[in-house]
Amino acid sequence: MASIQIQTDEIELDEPTLVEGLPGVGLVGKIAADHLVTEFDMQYYGAVHCDGLPKVAMYRGEHSDVRPPVRIYADEGRDLLVLQSDVPVSPTTASDFATCITGWVESNDALPLYLSGIAEEKGDVPELYGVATGDAESVLDDVGIVPPRESGLVTGPTGALLYRASEVGLDSVGLIVQTDPKFPDPEAARVLLKNGIEPIVDVSIDASTLVEQAGEIQTAREELAKRLQDAGDESSEAQPIRGFQ
To answer: Can you give the pTM of this predicted structure?
Structure first.
């Protein structure tokens, strides 16, 4: 049965923000989410057992406990949740997964931030765009995040999450950053953190190590990026649509 199993009753949250970190193009969402969990030393809060997820066990170095591949971490002081994933979500089951996550988000009065990369040529600093569902456009306006220049699609499980949010009228924000589609892109993840998540959540995030450790991050994420490329349309990505407006 699809569920999110809470691991502790000690954490109390008041209308938290949820940052989604599913693997996608450039691994920008995953890199950003992983950094938040580490930077804020967030507490393991929920085990995600939604339909559509591979039934595999995740273990950590120098730890004997086994955890599910998709988890929720919490920071009570910052009213912050992070959805961390070590596996891609198949497009054939993304709809069930999105329904499961969205139901839990609604029941916990959370504002989800859904993260995606877009394969656009970028300058020295990748550009960040924003889209919204429900009444969340005001969130983007308040922090000065502009919409994409062209019409497009957000594909994969992140697209399914945004679609489901729109379907049920849930307030949600989609942050889309220019990224390298072939390799893990810590610089694009840093832009997500500093120019998107930081002002929306109203927290201070030290993201300098992402660029300093770019080589290490790229090595650590190469295998997952390769798996996403091999999987084809399993990867979440924003894509422009030209000639059909």
So the answer is: 0.89
